[in-house]
Amino acid sequence: QKEVEQDPGPLSVPEGAIVSLNCTYSNSAFQYFMWYRQYSRKGPELLMYTYSSGNKEDGRFTAQVDKSSKYISLFIRDSQPSDSATYLCASLSGGYNKLIFGAGTRLAVHP
Amino acid sequence: GAVVSQHPSWVICKSGTSVKIECRSLDFQATTMFWYRQFPKQSLMLMATSNEGSKATYEQGVEKDKFLINHASLTLSTLTVTSAHPEDSSFYICSARTGTSDRFSPLHFGNGTRLTVT
Hints:
- The complex is a heterodimer of chains A (111) and B (118).
- Chain A is mainly beta.
- Chain A has no helices and 11 strands.
- In chain A, the strands form 2 sheets. In chain A, strands 2, 4, 5, 9, 10 and 11 form a 6-stranded mixed sheet that branches. A 5-stranded antiparallel sheet of chain A has the order 1-3-8-7-6, with no helix packed on it.
- The radius of gyration of chain A is 13 Å and the shape is globular.
- In chain A, 33% of the residues are buried.
- With 118 residues, chain B is an all-beta fold.
- Helix content of chain B is 0%, strand content 52%.
């Protein structure tokens, strides 16, 4: 079992839709959870990070962590074509150095 | 924000040659940098942790003699792929953190280097 599981998609939505991206993780010791966005042929760009359970909002993006179910979510409101990218969830393993990534979900927002 | 610069962005080399990739933290000092590898449509896999002034720590299955890492200063780490073969063709991405390893700080990534070995 992978430590962080993520459906690779692809996910295709119309512009303006609410997008829900999800991951599950297996290690109950994980405390920090991150979402990265990666455009084609580019490095990942940090979108948001959260600590433990709860929600965090930044503009159109909301990150949510439910530690009881080991579930991580990223919501994108009013999605735009420029949001088309691969979204990677990640968590720290064994201290603060080792980042474990999900497989990434490819999102396409069409006009 | 924290900026990590990686160079070159792409390189093509012949089988058997060596290739050096540079990773720089532009506006912060990084005692620790990380090298990842990403195959097409797959996620990032950590290859090694680069520590300034000491030897790198390699993940299981990564050949340290093939992937030489040097972290000579607080703003520069290099990855050298030695005696490259076509199976080494991949997307290599470095990252760095702004804080120290004893507390949390998010990782920031460079834009990657696409290596093609012919």
